[in-house]
Structures are given as C-alpha cells and as structure tokens.
Amino acid sequence: MDARFTPEQDHIRRTLRELLHKRCSPGDVRAAVDTPAGYDPALWTALARDLGLPGLALSEAHGGVGGTTTELALAAEELGRALAPSPLLATAVLATPLVAALGTDAQCADLLPRIASGTLTATLAVPGACLAGVLSLTGEPRRDWAGGGRAGGVQAARREGGWRLYGQVGQVLDGHSAQLLLVAAHAGGYARSRTLLFLVPGDAPGLVRTRQTSLDATRPQARIELRDVPAGLLGDEEADVGACLARTGDVTATVLAAEAVGAADRILELTVEHAQRREQFGRAIGSFQAVKHRLADVYVQVQAARSAAYYAAWECASTAAASAIAQEGERVGGLALAQALDSLRTAAAEGIQLHGGIGFTWEHEAQLYFKRAAGDELLFGPVHRLRAHAADAARIFDTGEVAV
C-alpha cells in the first residue's frame, strides 16, 4: 500500500482549500444556510465547473474526472473544515453511485453527465428515520424497511401509464432543493415483495417537499410527500437494491469520515489559536500543562481518525467502488466513520470548553462544529452502533463454538 498522495490529489486539496478560504468564511456559511436552497448556488457552480467535484469519482465516459473515492474523500475533508453547505454529499455520494450501478445505459447517459457538470443535483429518499440502517452501517435492514405492503413507507403501483408512488419520507438530505429524487419504494405486494428505486423529478406533479428545521443547519433536510406521483424505475425489477445500498453505505461512511476529520482538525486549530492568545493569571492558557494535555489528546485522536479515513478511502478505491458498487470487498467505512465522529465530538466539546464563555454562544463558530458532530451522529450513527455492527461483520466476538 502506497500511502502517499499523487500530485493531482494534492492539487485538488490545495486548490479547494484556497477557494473555500476566499468564499466560505463563517459569515458566508451562516448566510448560505438561510437561503431557500440551504447553500450558495454560486459557490456550488464554482465547485462543479472549476474543480469538477460532483464528477470526481465518475468515469470520463460519463463526463467525470475519472478519479476514485479517495479524491472524493479529500474534497470532503476540505469541505468539512469550512463546514461548507453544498449538495455534494446527497448528489455525488448517495445518489450518483446508485445511478451508475443500477441505471440502464440510457439512464446513465442522460443523468450522469449532468450530475458531473453540476447542472443536476440529486438525493436519496428512503422511508423511516434511520438512513444508517438502510445503508447497512448500524445493522442489516429488515426485509420490509420500505413499507412491506402495509401502511406507511412508500408504495409503488404499476399503472397503464407507468409507475406511481404513494407515501412519505421524513428525512431527506437536500430533499427540498434536489432536482432529482431517488426514492426507495415497496412493490409487488405480499407475493413478490421487493424494494425498488425510482427516479422522481423535483417538479413532478403530486410531489410536496417541505424543508425541516434541523440541528445542523449546514446539513439541510426535508420531508417529502408522494401523492400519486409518476416515477420511472431505475434499472430493472431484478436489481439487487439491498446489496447496492450496502455498498453505497460504505462509500458514504468513508466520505463522511474524511469530512468529519476535516471539521475536527479545523476546530482543533481554532482552539489552539485561542489558547495561545487568551491570557489568565498573566499567562496564555495554552502554557498550562493541563490545557496542553487536553489538546494533545485531541490531536492524537484526530490523527488516528485521519488514518482510519484514509485507509477506508484507499480500500474503496482499490475495489473500484464508484464504478462497480456491487463488488464484494472489505467494508471498513463504518468503523472509520465511528472513529471520525468520535474525534469530532471530542474536539468540538473541548473547543467549546477551552474557548470559555464565548465557546457556546450563537455568534461563535465553535457551536457550528459541535452541531455538525451531533447532527451526523443522529443521522448516521450512533458511534457505538457503528462499532458494534463492524465488530459483528468481522466476527470479532464469534467464538466458533457449535452447540451440541
């Protein structure tokens, strides 16, 4: 394993950091989340047109850069440092791999180039309140997770004019602004019960989208209601949606881990800078041994999380996860995400403590990092369940004994 980054990967990170430093200050972040879209469309256009972020892990045949999950993770790390609100996670990480893996040639040719150029944003809508469970991060989803033919969830019915969807999804990342929704719905009734993915345009008749108030404003969510909404089937009816969602979950966890590492690294930098400036008893508080020990512990934890995130990205890239998402391989994204979320939560909590009275105020940016840590754990965790599922998958606690 060669752990060194290529010159191209270093260039992506350096260029993105410079762009975000100029156009994504804490004031810019606060202004962007208050817009109807929840992000700055001009910044998103720059990220897509100048840096090609939505197409980093897409092949050149589909208009992408031809990179891997590693490049996407490095970009996410820089976005995490700035807490930059953007549709990158929903579009390039959740939706795009599913379209590439399950879509027909015609669907891929139509959708992927527009996603790569940034002119089409997309997201994944799955019923229930636990996206982590559907992506197999905290456990294997139940067979009837999309509704199972009963009330609730999302149901798909075949009509003469095509498929129609009915139901509601409560937590959809960027669901209020995405131009394309990938909706998971139950179809087939009891006899042929199965879950399929459907393509729903953002302006489809009968689709009602409502932005929700969320703990982390930089990660906007929406509730969508489907009232006899026309939809197109993604791929064919024989597709193994569950396996593709599980592999998508590993890629998602890897990218999220890198993003959390970037956020943890930045709040640690802010805390160290404050400790060097803030004086108490005639000395900078950073000179006190107790403060040094606390910051050193956070630094070690952040570096360990970075190593785990980079390894997970390398593993995803080595199995060509972005283009062949159904391939089997070692899935370490969930464990890397647990480590990264734990480090971000610790770094944010210590940052608020060591900033003193200003750390928990609404005006200071430290609280934004704490909310990112808490919000991500609610959406994709909690940490102990991520670790428990990873341990179960690796059979760490399997004694191998056979009952007689």
UniProtKB/TrEMBL annotation:
Source organism, top-level taxon: Bacteria
Key words of the record: FAD, Flavoprotein, Oxidoreductase
Keyword Cell cycle: no
Positions of the Acyl-CoA dehydrogenase/oxidase C-terminal domain: 254-390
Cofactor(s) annotated in UniProt: FAD
InterPro entries tied to this protein: Acyl-CoA_Oxase/DH_mid-dom_sf, AcylCo_DH-like_C, AcylCo_DH/oxidase_C, AcylCoA_DH/ox_N, AcylCoA_DH/ox_N_sf, AcylCoA_DH/oxidase_NM_dom_sf
Domain Acyl-CoA dehydrogenase/oxidase N-terminal: 6-118
The keyword Plastid appears for this protein: no
Similarity comment text for this entry: Belongs to the acyl-CoA dehydrogenase family.
Record's protein name: Acyl-CoA dehydrogenase
Originating species: Streptomyces lacrimifluminis
